[in-house]
Amino acid sequence: MRAFAHQSMFENGNLALAIAPALTPQGIVPDPTFFKGFATEPQVLARGLLVLADITATRYFNYMPLVLRDPILSAQGDMLRAECFSACNGVYARLDLLKSGFDGKIGLGTTNVDIGIELRAALMHIKQKDKMHLNIGDIGLMVSHFGKPSEDSKITQVKNKVHERPVEMPDRWVRALGNSAEIHRGMKPIFSVNAIHAQAFVASLPPATGKSQATWLIPSPKGIKLMARRSGKAAYVSGLHRLSALKRVMTNIKGMTFYMPDEPGASMIEVELTGMRITLSLTADAQHGYSGEGALLTALAKEDVLEDVEAISSMLSFEAALNEQKMAKLWGMNDGRMQTALTHLAISGKLGFDAHENVYFHRELPDDPNRILKDNPRLVSARKLIEFIEVNGENQRTIRSKDVEYIVHLSPDKDIQKARCSCTWYLNHMNKRGPCKHILAVQLKEGL
């Protein structure tokens, strides 16, 4: 998943999406083929891909268009999922291409898909009545171009060219995939609106260059209203301008659902299209990226579950939906132990979470056994602080670090999510970006 041998192209109604070497059930495949067939909604698919292309090339905090990054593509037998993050890492986007959107057979595996500048330009011109044959993973794609005529000939020479473009998946994308999966697992649907109200809302969104605006949204008979305070069935969104890419599919929207966790912060918007869905989720603040949210730290501080992780990982086979209860019963684990193991798998990017179906799904990325420690320096620091913890009463712990004394206050029920600390990190972020290193240290020592 590091380089493309060929570039994607659209020509004479044929969309050939070039993909990098893939991780599949058979191992690494240099020239995979994920799908060959017809798209039932060519224009909707083209616009959906453009939404992802817009997002991955945009930095929404201190706006700046940047170099494109290539979406992650997972083929799961009856579904294709394309995922990416914005250049600022504060927006997660996923295009779920459902079986009804294709006439053909979908394979299994995970890779990167090339959506370059030339393909973007071609996708913009696809019309509703066009026919599109889709080829994802064409090993024989050659791009023809015309060279300049020689001085002694007026005939333009045709040359064949294979476009090789090195690609490196940003390391923070893998870290962000784990954090976003944990955040998405806590998302709950708040309200849904029909096509007319959804389209009107998208039309009213500020441009990507707009100023960040945090607001509460509530449904009304006339559409979606913006409110300064929470009222009734309200969903919180931080940075309306970060949804601006949805204007690409505005006229194709069939409905829209707003999600949020129990406490206001991160938010999610799901857009229903014919044969597909687009999901956008935003961090609690436009200045923060998913790679630094720290959503997994509490789960990582639990007892060692590496044996469980290895056993479960060996059985995954690019499923579009993983049933946690069935898996726990199969492996003889309780729900908490299974959830911890799945959380560890999410860290390495092996699992995503689909809030619409309320299930994990499997994707496979290159594995790094040291990723947990490398991506979570707070956890490393917490382990070093364990020996400096002193018990001062039933619900108070003191930690000395570099001649400074920090006080951790635990709740009567010892719920680590309710713990408080006197350090600057906690005062600035509370527990919105995961616990501070002092609370983590107490959790590690006392097994909370």
Overall CATH architecture of the largest domain: Roll
Choose one word for the global shape.
Answer: globular
Number of helices: 12
With strands numbered from the N-terminus, the spatial order across the biggest sheet is: 13-9-10-11-24-23-22-18
How far apart are the termini? 38 Å
CATH class of the largest domain: Alpha Beta
Helix/strand/pairing category:
alpha+beta
Q: What is the domain tally?
A: 4
* Topology, number of strands: 30
Main attributes?
alpha+beta; single chain; 30 strands; DNA Polymerase III, Chain A, domain 2; 448 residues; Arc Repressor Mutant, subunit A; 8-stranded antiparallel sheet; 5-stranded mixed sheet
Protein model, in words:
The protein is of the alpha+beta class. It folds into 4 domains: 3-143, DNA Polymerase III, Chain A, domain 2, CATH 3.10.150; 171-287, Roll (DNA Polymerase III, Chain A, domain 2), CATH 3.10.150; 297-370, Winged helix-like DNA-binding domain superfamily/Winged helix DNA-binding domain (Arc Repressor Mutant, subunit A); 376-446, no CATH class. It is 24% helix and 30% strand. The protein has 12 helices and 30 strands. The strands form 9 sheets. Strands 13-9-10-11-24-23-22-18 form an 8-stranded antiparallel beta sheet, with helices on both faces. The protein has a 5-stranded mixed beta sheet with strand order 2-3-14-6-12. Strands 27-28-29-30 form a 4-stranded antiparallel beta sheet, with helices on one face. Strand 28 and strand 29 (404-409) form a beta hairpin. The longest helix is centred in the first third of the chain and has 15 residues, at 42-56. The chain is globular. It starts with a strand and ends with a helix.
